[in-house]
Amino acid sequence: xxxxxxxxxxxxxxxxxxxxxxxxxxxxxxxxxxxxxxxxxxxxxxxxxxxxxxxxxxxxxxxxxxxxxxxxxxxxxxxxxxxxxxxxxxxxxxxxxxxxxxxxxxxxxxxxxxxxxxxxxxxxxxxxxxxxxxxxxxxxxxxxxxxxxxxxxxxxxxxxxxxxxxxxxxxxxxxxxxxxxxxxxxxxxxxxxxxxxxxxxxxxxxxxxxxxxxxxxxxxxxxxxxxxxxxxxxxxxxxxxxxxxxxxxxxxxxxxxxxxxxxxxxxxxxxxxxxxxxxxxxxxxxxxxxxxxxxxxxxxxxxxxxxxxxxxxxxxxxxxxxxxxxxxxxxxxxxxxxxxxxxxxxxxx
Length: 349
Known about the structure:
The protein is an all-beta fold and 349 residues long.
């Protein structure tokens, strides 16, 4: 788990309520996955300014911040929405916050970046804000944002030549940039999407899969999954496992980066899933939104057994966003009608 300390240039805006967490959620595993179910459904109907189910979830799953328009967020915690608050520099005109919002390990700090590279940090509980400014030109567009040990990082696209760079800065230093390391791998033809930075997973056409660290440019692990590329999937939060599917969506497989072993888990027979997740212990896989139907399913890795866990809330379209908290306790599904939050919840006697 990653920790950091941010030094804030403080001025008071509003105070966001601090909701106390109650019983700690339980990480998913093969032993408890049958008790994984929808526990909270939050409706957007009272909030007409929320136009999509785009959100960011805290690493422990307790806080969900939903985007409201271009410059505001609203916090949802334990069944309650707080008042929406602005998270941009008030001096900005027509702010354009990109969909790269970071929330800290303790869930108390949100950071956003606009299309000019201005990073705004907000302490949710106190209501203070601070900024770092990458001062990007029009030719450079930020794609991702993360924060590590008080240092802000962005991955950005250089529009002129369609190359990527990785930038970093602290509050008292100018930004520095390094090349996007996976671009030097001539064999990599696929970058698996939806994997949160600083990690990147690439695959060659021959199934050579690599796990990268964008901050250092290092290859953290590599393995061979066969004679086809891994085109879609997700790593476990501890970085040990990769759940992935093939280009034709015939099989869902599990790669163990520590041992190099790749195991086919279950036949998909062409079924398309919007998201996959694998537990930190590698014993269970989740699949969400099967063939555009609102289903959540699981597979036991050791046996390949499929478990149909149920349906998530009704939407008028496919989910806008699906995220699992970093501690593997809380699945959040957001769409135009609201949020659906899943946790381990054993049925009472």
